[in-house]
Automatic annotation (TrEMBL):
GO terms for cellular component: cytoplasm. Keywords: Hydrolase, Magnesium, Manganese, Membrane, Metal-binding, Transmembrane, Transmembrane helix. Signal peptide: none annotated. CDD domains: NUDIX_CoAse_Nudt7 (cd03426). Residues 45-185 form the Nudix hydrolase domain. PANTHER family: NUDIX HYDROLASE, NUDIX HYDROLASE 11. SUPFAM superfamilies: Nudix. Its cofactor is Mg(2+); Mn(2+). GO terms for molecular function: coenzyme A diphosphatase activity; guanosine-3',5'-bis(diphosphate) 3'-diphosphatase activity; metal ion binding. It comes from the Eukaryota. This is Nudix hydrolase domain-containing protein.
Length: 238
């Protein structure tokens, strides 16, 4: 899914892209990104994908694109999220879902995104299986956000490394299906507007940052068991 004819690419992003393309998800995913397609279609409608779109900021740090959901939405209104959503009948795979949703939500042209890998699936409290898709945006200037006002209130970006640091972070203990875990909250200020990145979105970004920077977070993570990968026998039912 590599994009072409974008001029000179960042060496840092090229190196990151190559390294991430070698990432080995759990065996039940069979490294679908290297075949350039996601997990095959299934009959279960409770399936979604999100796009973790990484680019290089002006100061050379790696940043990731996030959205704030519209306050008019019936669920999770006003919350920070990754671009993404539920799989539709016409989607060939999870990568197609993530790219389509990013285009619909924030106007991100799929041709600008180099998909390098997917990571292990997560399951939400509502039993939706979510596949995180990691992509590289080599030419940030070519992306002019055009958010769909019915879904997205604002588009912003944050340093990816912040999800490994203890700064501007707090936690609360929660329980899910008998599993006690820590729910993390990260505060981020962009101009005069403040954002809180928490729960499911924060958990995915902690995991991605761990993979990208090849080191664990500076705090105790303690994730729910199901966030450590869905077993083969369960994935087959999805």
């Amino acid at each position: 899914m590599a994009s072409e004819n974008r001029g000179e690419k960042s060496q840092k992003l090229i190196s990151l892209s190559r390294r991430l393309s070698l990432y080995e998800p759990p065996p039940h995913l069979n490294n679908p990104a290297r075949r350039q397609h996601g997990i095959p279609k299934s009959a279960n409608p409770k399936r979604a994908a999100v796009l973790i779109c990484i680019f290089e900021g002006n100061d050379g740090e790696l940043r990731v694109i996030l959205t704030q959901r519209s306050s008019q939405l019936s669920s999770h209104s006003g919350e920070v999220a990754l671009p993404g959503g539920k799989r539709e009948e016409g989607d060939a795979d999870d990568i197609a879902t993530a790219l389509r949703e990013a285009k619909e939500e924030i106007g991100l042209d799929p041709s600008l995104v180099d998909v390098v890998t997917v990571i292990e699936p997560y399951m939400t409290r509502f039993h939706v299986t979510v596949i995180p898709v990691i992509g590289i945006l080599f030419d940030k200037k070519a992306f002019n956000p055009t958010p769909d006002a019915s879904e997205v209130e604002s588009v912003f970006d944050v340093p990816l490394e912040m999800f490994l640091k203890n700064e501007n972070r707090r936690e609360v203990e929660d329980e899910w299906m008998g599993d006690k875990f820590l729910c993390h909250f990260f505060d981020y200020q962009s101009g005069e507007k403040g954002f809180i990145i928490w729960a499911f979105t924060a958990a995915i970004l902690i995991r991605v940052a761990t993979i990208v920077y090849q080191r664990p977070p500076a705090f105790l993570e303690r994730r729910p068991t199901l966030w450590n990968g869905i077993p083969d026998k369960d994935l087959a039912k999805l």
